[in-house]
Write a structure and sequence with these properties.
By secondary structure, the protein is an alpha+beta fold. The chain has helices at residues 8-15, 17-33, 59-74, 106-123, and strands at 2-6, 40-45, 48-52, 79-81, 84-86, 91-96, 127-129.
């Protein structure tokens, strides 16, 4: 899964990069907390995360996990900005690719998941599977 935080730039622009960093750390903790022992989550860059699910074969099971991740990300973040606590709310878009149907290499799977993420973002659907 390719997870991208929607409108993250607004948080940096409104509250500053220190607040943005705190939000990223909060999201990373939430993702780690919602990761099964056999899965892996990592920050890919900027406001993007990769989520490796193993072994799942049913699309409905993958969709259930994606929905759980979206819900965890959407909870408000308590972030200190100078002397004030602000509560920016986040939303995310998730693109999903499945091995081996969508690619045989990590690079191919990431590319297909990235493409699916843009579809989810465009459709405001939360998540989308690679086509």
């Amino acid at each position: 899964m390719f997870v991208d935080l929607n409108n993250f730039k607004t948080i940096n622009d409104t509250y500053g990069h220190q607040a943005g960093d705190a939000v990223l750390q909060t999201v990373a903790k939430r993702l780690a907390h919602n990761t099964r022992n056999e899965d892996t989550v990592s920050r890919y860059g900027g406001d993007e995360f990769l989520y490796l699910l193993t072994p799942l074969h049913e699309q409905k099971d993958i969709a259930m996990i994606a929905a759980k991740i979206l819900k965890a990300i959407q909870a408000p973040c308590d972030v200190r900005v100078r002397d004030v606590i602000v509560n920016p709310c986040l939303d995310a878009s998730i693109g999903i690719s499945v091995f081996p149907k969508d690619g045989a290499s990590g690079a191919a799977l990431i590319k297909r998941a990235d493409e699916a993420m843009y579809e989810a973002k465009e459709n405001k659907s939360g998540f989308a599977f690679a086509q």
